[in-house]
Design brief:
single chain; 715 residues; alpha/beta; Immunoglobulin-like; TIM Barrel; 3 domains; eight-stranded parallel barrel; six-stranded mixed β-sheet; 16 helices
Length: 715
């Protein structure tokens, strides 16, 4: 071990920053008594050069090292009290990762040395483990931020015009034979013309990437021969996940990520990151000390007030980030700005966002985290999407995030699933969801863009499995099928009685089309889970977080049935894109606009009459018609201009029997059939035209979409 001297350097910015002639290092630790910067060569050995950081400004330890260049490997050893009963867990025997590292190379080699205390002892975490873990920990890399962005321009798609595609970087291209084998499953693979071409042809406007900030694979999963495939186990909030890079040993993940973003932008596609700031991969008080815990445990984590030995846990993952500490909050904001300004992403989906907005113990719409984002000149201009719940008391906050935020609308998912299943008493709530959930968002001054609608997501059944399995089948996860949600028992796709297998299969296919039609034609922002467009199956596994294999990867060899469903999905997205009335920036009024003699939205019962108040309260009612009008001033865009669009009639029948539906309007009104989910293709030929007052036989468990094509007032 060699020790060298340094010059004082500067306390900001935090992290390792290239300067003329060297690198400035800065690390925050309020409670530390000393910090060593540890330098390593790039030849894979563990020889360590230590630099004592003697300068400290506002709890930031800093030093400037002349002669250091990009590519330098480094880490920290932090000195301070070892008093776990007071929340202090300093242990300089353990190498630690820089919280601001722009790249991390290598993966943890799990063994007992990784932990700051001796395992397998009673009250083990109260003692200190003195073994050096340097051989087992990844290294941080000093990075040069230079990159040629060329003419890159963010697409800046308005939120209400967005169609989001939730996708895993690796899983999307791992089996895509159209791209070179070495690129499959990487950032580079997702940025290839083959990948972006498929996404453009499908019609989506944004990819929402499952976590791509550097994460760790849990020891318990490694021991089972599994891995943390989804990546909700972050350890580096500025570092792109190295496992998706071609050359991670030299920090290639940074350049490769930027190239991917550049290529996606060139294809007109936005990039949204799923970010996990609510907890880290260090787990509870018995977890390893890899970074934050060893640098300053009580500053970075929320600890129990009366027993600071233990972590407060609103996430179910062992710890919760201490958003109430200014430096911990600063890290989140610095990280978000970095991904927008340096990596050029277009927005974020915040995992378990309620945790980030808890003031002490309760959710607070005026929490510092929310206020800072709203005021920030950079972050307030990108897409901000909350997963508006956590597992703590009062954690379900759908509809309660402030203006400027969109939310995963869990009530949309639950209501739409329940309606198409055939549950009684769902019609009123179903109507709210179709119209953009004004019951959740309108009173707070928000718009339909606040509602990110989804039927399925990475967490749960795929669309195919949702209508195919009555029980989850997570046996491959190694937890005796105890993990995962229990939200789909006794589904049976809405079949009644002694329906034969062939009919059940037809019904399952129809229900998939029903869900997709509802998703893309409802007001709000649709989010499609990757693979649902063709009917991807996980064989009933509704918690495939640890399945980095064929079970999770998208398949590209598709049979006739899957091709039909893909074409149906494309058709739905195309209809949504062509007709602004399906993606309004504001809620329907349900009454005539000024100067107009028509309503922009009307609801009809099967008799062809407007729904009365009592109709909505018929417990077993399951059939409804929704008429939406985009003519003239009934629809005003963001600039205040009237938008011309057609009039459409959406007919829904969740009953298990056919229901005759009288089409509204006089005989002079003509309705062209665009979609009939009872058909295997789903998309109609466009040749079938019915007139107002005519009765349509609305098939069981089916949806139809009509467009008004002619109103002949001369007759």
């Amino acid at each position: 071990m060699t020790r060298i001297k340094s010059t004082p350097g500067a306390p900001h910015p935090l992290g390792a920053t290239l300067r003329d002639g060297g690198v400035n290092f800065a690390l925050f630790s309020e409670h530390a008594t000393g910090v060593d910067l540890c330098l390593y060569s790039d030849n894979g050995d563990n020889r360590e050069t230590r630099v004592r950081m003697t300068e400290r400004t506002d709890h930031v330890w800093h030093a400037f090292l002349p002669g250091i260049r990009a590519g330098q490997r480094y880490g920290y050893r932090v000195y301070g009290p070892h008093a776990p009963e007071r929340g202090m867990r300093f242990n300089p025997a353990k190498l630690l990762l820089d919280p601001y590292a722009r790249a991390i190379t290598g993966k943890i080699r799990w063994n007992d040395r990784v932990f700051p205390y001796p395992l397998h002892q009673s009250e083990q975490d109260l003692d200190r483990d003195y073994r050096n873990n340097a051989a087992d920990l990844p290294r941080c890399l000093v990075m040069d931020p230079a990159f040629d962005w060329g003419g890159d321009q963010p697409p800046r798609v308005p939120m209400e015009e967005s169609v989001i595609y939730e996708v895993h970087v690796k899983g999307f291209t791992k089996r895509m034979e159209a791209i070179p084998e070495n690129l499959r499953g990487t950032y580079a693979g997702l940025g290839t013309p083959e990948a972006t071409g498929y996404l453009r042809e499908l019609g989506v406007t944004a990819v929402s990437l499952l976590p791509v900030q550097e994460f760790i694979h849990d020891r318990v999963l490694i021991d089972r021969g599994l891995s943390n495939y989804w990546g909700y186990n972050t350890i580096g909030y500025f570092a792109p996940e190295s496992g998706y890079a071609l050359s991670p040993e030299n920090g290639g993940q940074v350049t490769e990520f930027k190239e991917m973003v550049k290529n996606l932008h060139a294809a007109g596609l936005e990039v949204i990151l799923d970010v996990v700031y609510n907890h880290t991969g260090e787990g509870n008080h018995l977890g390893p000390a890899l970074s934050f815990r060893g640098i300053d445990n009580p500053s970075y984590y929320r600890l129990l007030d009366d027993q600071p030995r233990y972590n407060m846990d609103f996430t179910g993952c062992g710890n919760s980030w201490n958003v109430g500490h200014p430096r911990a909050l600063q890290l989140i904001m610095d990280s978000l700005r970095y991904w927008v300004q340096e990596m050029r992403v277009d927005g974020f989906r915040f995992d378990l966002a309620t945790t980030l907005a808890r003031d002490n113990h309760h959710y607070d719409r005026g929490a510092a985290f929310l206020d800072i984002l709203r005021q920030d000149p950079v972050l307030s201009q990108v897409k901000l999407i909350a997963e508006p719940w956590d597992i703590g008391e009062g954690g379900y906050q759908v509809g309660n995030f402030p203006s400027g935020w969109s939310e995963w609308n869990g009530k949309f998912r639950d209501t739409v699933r329940s309606y198409w299943k055939g549950d009684d008493g769902r019609l009123g709530k179903f109507a709210w969801r179709l119209s953009g959930s004004p019951d959740l968002y309108q009173a707070g001054g928000r718009s339909p863009r606040a509602s990110v609608n989804f039927i399925t997501a990475h967490d749960g059944f795929t669309l195919h499995d949702l209508v195919s399995y009555n029980e989850k089948h997570n046996e491959a996860n190694g937890e005796d099928n105890r993990d995962g949600h229990h939200d789909n028992l006794s589904w049976n796709c809405g079949a009644e009685g002694d329906t034969d297998d062939a009919e059940i299969n037809r019904l399952r296919r129809r229900q998939r089309r029903n869900f997709l039609a509802t998703l893309f034609l409802a007001q709000g922002v649709p989010m499609l889970c990757a693979g649902d467009e063709y009917g991807r199956s996980q064989q009933g596994n509704n918690n495939a977080y640890c399945q980095d294999n064929e079970l999770s990867w998208l398949h590209w060899e598709r049979d006739e049935e899957q091709v039909k469903l893909t074409e149906f999905t494309r058709g739905l997205i195309r209809i949504r894109r062509q007709h602004p009335v399906f993606r309004r920036p504001g809620f329907f009024r349900g009454r005539p606009a000024r100067g107009a003699d028509w309503k922009d939205m009307m609801w009809y019962n099967p008799d062809g009459k407007e729904m009365s108040e009592s109709d909505w309260h018929v417990h077993f009612a399951s059939c409804v018609g929704m008429l939406i009008c985009g003519q003239g001033s009934a629809f005003i865009d963001q600039e205040g201009n009237p938008v011309q669009d057609g009039t459409f009639l959406l007919l829904f029948n969740a009953h298990y029997e056919e229901i005759p539906f009288r089409l509204p309007g006089e005989k002079t009104v003509q309705w062209k059939l665009l979609i009939n989910t009872f058909l295997e293709e789903g998309l109609a030929s466009g040749k079938e035209i019915l007139t107002g007052g005519q009765t349509a036989a609305l098939e069981p468990r089916a949806f139809r979409l009509f467009e008004q094509v002619k109103t002949d007032k001369s007759k």
